Amino acid sequence: MDHPLAPETVAVTAGRPPLEPDAPLNAPLTPASTYVAGGSMEYGRYGNPTWEAFEEVLGRLEAGRALTFASGLAAVSAIVDLIAPGEKIVVPRHAYLGVLTIMAEREQRGLLNVARVDVEDTEQVVAACDDAAIVWLESPTNPMLEVADIETIAAAGHEAGARVVVDNTFATPLVQRPLELGADIVLHSATKYLAGHSDAVLGAVVSRDDDVHTALDERRRTLGSVPGVLESWLAARGVRTLHLRLERSQANAAELAHRLEAHDATEKVRYPGFGSMIAIEVRGGAAAADLLTRSTSLWVHATSLGGVESTWERRRRWASEPETVPENLIRMSVGVENVDDLWRDLEAALGGLSG
What we know:
The chain is of the alpha/beta class. It folds into 2 domains: about 5-85 and about 145-240, Aspartate Aminotransferase, domain 2, CATH 3.40.640; about 245-355, Alpha-Beta Complex (Aspartate Aminotransferase, domain 1), CATH 3.90.1150.10. Helices cover about 35% and strands about 15% of the residues. The chain has helices at about 5-15, 50-60, 70-80, 95-110, 120-130, 150-160, 210-225, 230-240, 240-260, 285-295, 340-355; strands at about 65-70, 90, 115, 130-140, 165, 185-190, 205, 265-270, 275-280, 300, 310-315, 330-335. The protein has a 7-stranded mixed β-sheet with strand order 1-7-6-5-4-2-3, with helices on both faces. Strands 8-9-12-11-10 form a 5-stranded mixed β-sheet, with helices on one face. α1 packs antiparallel against α2 and α2 (about 50-60) runs parallel beside α8 (about 230-240). The radius of gyration is 21 Å and the shape is globular. About 50% of the residues are buried. It is an enzyme of class 4 (lyase).
């Protein structure tokens, strides 16, 4: 075709086998550990056609080249391994707990010099870029839903000689494409919105720089942090409906955020104006928040997010969550159910806090 395809069309069409008579419409599962010598894969740790199908879709959506990993944290570890021992990394004060744990553990071992920043304070982040090897961003952040000025921070990071990494898990490439805003590497927990059905653990990175792509691919091979074939197939299938799921869940989230702001049981509602994540702070502290997450029939108390079902949890139930996250904060992942059903379930549970 002589014009660029829309992202939703890319999500449906990319990564499919050639359209030939009797060819499968979808890339099949290829459970192979060994290949005939002489090609580009050679061995099951070096490549797989099923991985490549998902990588093609995600790479097209993010406007770069994608690599899949066994999990989001496996992808994080591969990126962090690009930093020489003792170099500086700028990290959000609030971020995915696994990321913060990796950074703290490597800092304690003397492998990283970690500078923690509030991503919404652009001046603070820009000032921290000096002498950094990597500037790490989440936007929106997990679980506080803070939004970073990616373009400004990326420019400052590059001026300081740093690579800029953006975790795009919450926004997805349908809302923002960080590479086009100046980022060098985009990270995804593909477990979440991309796969979208709470049935696959998978990570991915996307970049445009051939040297970065090669270095990350070498880390994947060396560490053995390769994705499962079934998980890759499920993610490729899941991403076909990403635009439909996100459209519905985002509309639900916007409506629920509006209704929650007017409810007496909520002290604060955090919603960045896009995406499907909400965070609320409820009256009554941690005890009320714990009670609330156990008092619904549709909302599922679970620690993951980004599936078709609505889930929530009080984040400080995890002892290692940053102390700056309020004790009464509940992170909500809004699904694709009927919004009025979701609200009735919420409203009844919220009413129980004061009843």
